[in-house]
Every structure is written in C-alpha cells, then in structure tokens.
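A favour, since you know our structure tokens better than I do. Could you add the entry underneath, on a fresh line?
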Amino acid sequence: MIRRWVLSLHHKILFPIVTIIIMEVFINKMRRLKGQRKLILIEEAWKAIAKEGMADYLKYLCAPVKVA
C-alpha cells in the first residue's frame, strides 16, 4: 500500500521548523551543483511567502543564486 503524506503549514510550531529545513535543503543543493543552472519554484506557497522571515530569505537568496 502506498501512503501519501500531506504537509500542513497551519501548525504554529511546525511551520518555522519546516520552513528552515526547506531553506537549508535548497541552499545545500545549490552549493553542491556548481556550474549547473538552478531554479527555485515557489508555487502555491502564499502563506509561506507572506511571512516576513520568508520574504527576507528570498531577498537573501537572490545574490547567491546568481553567483552559483
């Protein structure tokens, strides 16, 4: 039997933890793939983008993603 997991970001404690994990995974992957084009696609993540910390993170990502 195949189980599907749905990640809900409505939990006040888990939301920041999950957000940090996602951000770290992306940065680590970006650093490992030198010389390859990279893309981060944020689709249907309005709740995450609306948070002040996530908006600051997206601004922070602009320079390293351009360089990498």
Notes: The longest helix spans residues 14-32. The two ends are 41 Å apart (CA to CA). Residues 14-67 form one domain. The chain has three helices and no strands.
